[in-house]
């Protein structure tokens, strides 16, 4: 866990839902924090919304997402997650959504 794991645990226990991604960054600290949050939500189910840098981090490592997980990618993030071109997503958004 991160250095301030107790504080993170307290905040996650307090929250009724979790949003992670905007401003998170994509360094090793950010990746570790995302993994901790995903681990927490797996053990303590809560709705979680993943956006921005959380999606970029997910695109670099395949992981199983917890239940009650919402992804909000724009076409560029969706393309990174799917390993395709932005134009592929733009040409068939319904297919991209199904694949995500």
Automatic annotation (TrEMBL):
Coiled coil ranges: none
Q: Which Pfam families match?
A: Carb_kinase
Q: Which Gene3D superfamilies match?
A: 3.40.1190.20
Q: Which GO terms describe its biological process?
A: metabolite repair
Q: Which InterPro entries match?
A: CARKD, Ribokinase-like
MF (Gene Ontology):
ADP-dependent NAD(P)H-hydrate dehydratase activity; ATP binding; NAD(P)HX epimerase activity
Superkingdom of source:
Bacteria
- Per the database record, which ranges form the YjeF C-terminal domain? 1-100
Record-linked PANTHER family? ATP-DEPENDENT (S)-NAD(P)H-HYDRATE DEHYDRATASE (PTHR12592:SF0), ATP-DEPENDENT (S)-NAD(P)H-HYDRATE DEHYDRATASE FAMILY MEMBER (PTHR12592)
**Protein name in UniProt:** Bifunctional ADP-dependent NAD(P)H-hydrate dehydratase/NAD(P)H-hydrate epimerase
Q: Species lineage, top-down?
A: Bacteria, Pseudomonadati, Pseudomonadota, Gammaproteobacteria, Alteromonadales
